[in-house]
Structures are given as C-alpha cells and as structure tokens.
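Q: My labmate handed me this sequence with no annotations at all. I'd like to see what the chain might look like in three dimensions before we decide whether it's worth expressing. Could you predict it?
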Amino acid sequence: MAQAAEEYLKELQPVPLHMKRESQVPKYLNLVNKGGGSQGLERALGHLLRIMAKAQVFDFQCFLLMDGLGTIISAVITPGMQDESDVSKKAVVLAVQLYRNACTLCPQIARHALLGNSVVGLFDALFQSLQLPEEKSPQHPVELSTELMLACTVALSPSYTKKHTHPNVLERLPDLISYAVITGLIEILSRRCMKIRESIENHQSVVLSLLATLGFITRFIDVCPPGPTDPTRFLSAAKSTELFGSIAMLYATVVPIGECIPPRTISLAAATFNLLVSMAVLDLATFQEVMSSEAISLKFLDVVTILLKYCGNKCTAAKNSETQAVIIDLIATIGFFCANNKQNQDLLTSEQCSIIIKNLTKLPEHLNVVVYPCLVTITFQNQEARNVISRDFNLDFLDEYSKSEKAKKNHLVALLKDKT
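A: Here is what I predict for the chain of 420 residues:
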C-alpha cells in the first residue's frame, strides 16, 4: 500500500508557475510545512480553510499537486496526536476540518486521499483518539474522534471511489479495508456501539459520535468488494462484532423509551437500519447468520415492534421525514431477514410477532412500494406464512404484484430462489 502510494505521488506534476501566481494555497501549505511560521499553524490552517471554501479550480489543483492532504497529516495531525506535542488541539481540529472540506468540495482530492495513502494517517489518528478520554470544551464542542470519522467517511465516499477516473482507486480499497480490520479500528468502532446501555437522548455529544460511527462503518460496507470470499476479513469482523454492535445499541436506546420516541433516537434508528440494509445488500449470508441468532433476533424484533408502531403512525403526516426513512429501511431489513430463510419466515409469522405483521399491513398506501416486496419474501414458498398474512392482508394483491414488472426489477424479490 505504501509503495503504491509512493509511486503515485512521484507521478504528480509540479505546480505550474501561473497557478502559483493565481493561488495562495502554495504559500500557506509551505507555512504549514514549516510549523506555521511566525503566525502559527492555526492561522495558516484557517487561511487554507477559507481559501478552499471559495472552490476555485486553481486552488484545488495546487492543493492536489502539492499533496496538501499528505502535508496536513504529516505536519499537523500525526504530530498533534503525540504526547506533549507542540501542535495545539485547535490546530489538529482545523487540519481535520480542512481535510474533510477539501475532499467534500473536490472529488479529485478525495480520490487523492486514497491513492496518496493519507487516509491511513487519518485512520491511525482516529484509532489513537478512540483510546483516549475525550476532552470537551466550549472551544471544541464536537469531539476530535467525531471530526476524524466525518473526514474519513467523506474520503471513502462511493461517489468518488467508484468512478473510474483513476485505474488504481478500486484496487486500493480492499487494502484500506483490510488495514482497518487488522489494526483493530473496526473492532474499536463497534465497541463504541456495544457500550451503550441506556437512552442517549439527553447526551447530544454521544448522539453525534454514534451517528458518525454508524456512518463511517456504513461507508466501509458501501465500498467493500462483494463476493463469497472475504479477503479483507471485513465479513468476519461483522460476525464477530454481531454486525458492529448496532442491534445491541439500538435495543438499549429504543426499548427503554417505549412508544414515544424522540428525534435524536429516531436519527440513530435511521442510521442503524441504513447500516443493516447496506450489510444485507453486501452479503446476505453474513447478515442472516448474525441476525438469526436467538439473542440478536429477539432484540431486533422487539425494536421493530416498537418502531413500526410508533413510526408507522407518523408516516402519513410527513412523507419525506426521517421517521419515514426509518420505516422504509426497517421494512427492507425485515425482507432481507426473511429472504430464502424459512426459519426466519416462521419466526416473523409466529404468534409472538403477530403485531409486526398487523402493523406492516396497516401502513399508508404510498409505502406499498416497500411493503409488497417485504411481504413477498415473508410468504415465499411458505404456505403457513401465507395463511398468517391472509388474516390481515388480501393475498390476491400480493400475487398480482409478484407477477408484475415492478417485482422483477426489485432487488429484494430478485434474491428469492425457487427450491422446487
């Protein structure tokens, strides 16, 4: 990985003179390299943040060709994470924000984060920050680990990494995922979720941190290569952490609250179900293996029962709300849970889960686009399940949908395999 990055960096062209004249980026990057000069690192980084926010092409090109990401990692973030460092915490935070903003504003710079290997420096800093007690202060309301996760998440965006503008981007992703697994980064991120034992509604910084954690893990899922083999060991990590501790966390935060679920918990549920759907799409076998264990499946179904009852009632009022986003991914998760799995079909249509089926069939009509595929997977080649569903739902509608073009194009329905 390091050798490939070194070869890539050698291929970068020097900054043309006319760009140097047009842009202030070279001046301030050189200052950062020298420790900030007489003005200090914080001021130089602040200038770079303001310059990059203007989104000028010459500024982006200078930042890219001068390996600005590598500079702020080597000159600010890495030394700033050391004990008794001369680099202030504020400078480290500014550098992380600059890294994130540069990747957000310019796709080429985001790809450069992977190709130049600077994102590994972020991984290392994040791993280190997650093992240290976070210092909260009015000057730094967002924890450094959260800032680092947000920067890493942006750098790994599929919209940047999966466009074939550079042939080595897709080759580099498995190495990065393997690195995150081997170094223990995935495990320590998962442990953050596992540690949650109660409602977090009154702890805003914890909510932000958990949302960043779930978003970062989901980004790994999004860019992980699919396939039955597991060269990155990422699927093994998903199993050993029981899908990154997400179900245990959601159970701990939702069940004690009951039916009146406040906004921050809804946001957490939305992020969790987004992660679960992404995992099911990546590797259904791994998803079902974890979700089918008795302890996890019971927690999952308890959460589904509460959210479906609460969020389902809210869907008619606000069609584009976060509450509806929870319901859509929750329904998809149920579908993946039951796809080609008679044991899970039988569990979901058992007496203990009857309220789930009732609430599924009572959802507003505009959600049929997700409800119908879900019901198809629950009843597929399972007459007992069909009998249970028929008590609350007209199966003629479902049979008609199953034969439609919409069903043939649906990802969930396409997974179903005829065993006869």
